[in-house]
Structures are given as structure tokens and as C-alpha cells.
Amino acid sequence: MRKLLIIIAFFILYTTLWAGVTDKQIVLKGIYQGENLYVMNPFAPTGVGFCVLEVRVNGQVTTDEINSSAFEIDLSVYNFKIGDPVTVVIKHRDGCMPKVLNPEVIRPRPTFNIESIKIDPQHSRLIWITTGELGSLPYIIEQYRWNKWSKVGTVKGKGTPGLHSYSYTVHFHSGLNRFRVKQIDKFTKQARFSPVVTYMSKQPPITFKPGNGRKVVDKIIFSAPTDYEIYDYYGRLKKKGYGREVNVSTLPKGSYFINYDNKTEIFYKK
């Protein structure tokens, strides 16, 4: 009888423990870069056993020892090649949360190498060729004008180690033009830059009417299409774009700075 009671009590305890188990899980997606993941594994809320129930890598249950306060997910045993996609699913009990200590090792990184970067003036395009990409990150195209590097567009990176060619349509201003591309590490927020490429444009300097320092009623007219930015007296951006005309009728009265072509000037809104 005593033995039967012990069995019943054990069954109740076992059932109670697993009644709290849900489909809680952590999902990590990325690419293989030759490094393993490390997990901090707290005790289960009941105090019996550990939080993690199961770990799967690309759908396969791992053979890693997960019944400890910390364990390693060994990605090397799956014969991944550098750049292969990886999905790690960590299933755990409700009421606790394991912590992956180094999730950045499978996140895309800006590892590109620039094989060449050039300007195609005939088609107004920036062209660059890369190798060594590990994971798809956007390329950010920047142009130096108005004493700063400004973002002019993005192109999605292919994210594989092979040779890749990219291009982007750019707007030239008069005089010396400078361009570069970069990618930003999502974890460290650090940027990786290409070399700067330059092009000397022979187009004449752009002007605008009614002219520098003059009063404007409703619109500004440039002598040719140009990128522009308009800032108020406090340095707040009010308008930006590309074109030959800018409607400023809705701006409050006052002085404004206008960046256009490769210069900065002032106008007064009546």
C-alpha cells in the first residue's frame, strides 16, 4: 500500500511539473560563421530540473547536454559551410527564460570587401563589386555635400561570399562629387565603409530665384533639377527632395537656410 502511494505521489508530481510546460521558445535565425552559441540555463520555476527542454538546429534535435546551468550549442557538428543559413529553436518551460549569451555570432556582419567602385557618368550611376559578404545587410549609399555625408539610398546586399555587382542611380552636383557605400553591424552598430570614389562634374553651378537673401512668397525655382534641404532658423529640417521647384507657401514667415547643388544660402519667407 505504501509503495502504491509513493507511485501515485510521484505520478502527481510529474504531472504537475509538466502541466506548466508550454510551447515557449526562443528562435534565432542567422548564418553560420564558424562559432558556437552559449546559453545560460536557469532552474525551472518548481526548483526541479532546468528551464530548457529541447534545442533544435535547422529542425534537428541537438545532442548537446542541456541539463546544466550553462551549455554550448555546438554548430560545428552539422557540417555547415560559412554563410549557410541557421535556425536555432530553444524550447523552455513556462515561468523561466534561458539567455543566449552571444546571439551576434550568427547575425549578419558587414564583412564585404570592395573589389572595385566607380562612377558611370554617362548613366549617372555608382557601381561597386564586392566579395566576402556574410549575411544580407543593406548597402547605404552616401554622398558628401553641404559639409556632411548624406544618405542618398540603399541597396539590399546578397549576403553570400561570392562576387556580386551592385549599382545605384545618383544625382551629381556641380564641381567635385564624392560617394561611398557602407554597411552597419546590427549588433555593434559599427559601420564598414568602402573607399571614397570621386567624379568632377562639368555641369554649371545651379542658382535659384528669387536669389540668395531675397524674399520668397510661394516657391523657389532652381536653374536646373537639384537635391535640396530647407532648414529653419533653429536648424530643424522643414523640406527636402529633388527637383526644379520647391513650394514654400506653407512655411511660416522668417529666415531659412537652403542647401542645394553644392552650396548653402539663405532666403526669407514673406
Number of domains: 3
Largest sheet: 6 strands, mixed
- Report the CATH topology name of the largest domain: Immunoglobulin-like
DSSP summary: helix tally:
1
- The number of distinct β-strands equals 21
Backbone CA Rg: 29 Å
Mean pLDDT across every amino acid position = 90
Instruction: Provide the CATH architecture of the largest domain.
Output: Sandwich
Helix/strand/pairing category: mainly beta
What gross morphology would you assign? elongated
Task: Determine the N-to-C terminus distance.
Answer: 99 Å
How would you briefly describe this protein structure?
With about 270 residues, the chain is mostly beta strands.
Would you write up a description of this structure?
There is one protein chain. This protein is mainly β and 270 residues long. Helices cover 7% and strands 49% of the residues. It folds into 3 domains: 19-106, no CATH class; 113-201, Immunoglobulins (Immunoglobulin-like, Sandwich); 208-269, Sandwich (Immunoglobulin-like), CATH 2.60.40.1220. The chain has 1 helix and 21 strands. Strands 16, 17, 18, 19, 20 and 21 form a 6-stranded mixed sheet that branches. Strands 10, 11, 13, 14 and 15 form a 5-stranded antiparallel sheet that branches. Strands 1-6-3-4 form a 4-stranded antiparallel sheet, with no helix packed on it. The chain is elongated and about 80 Å long.
Task: Jot down its keywords.
270 residues; Immunoglobulin-like; six-stranded mixed beta sheet; five-stranded antiparallel beta sheet; 1 helix; 21 strands
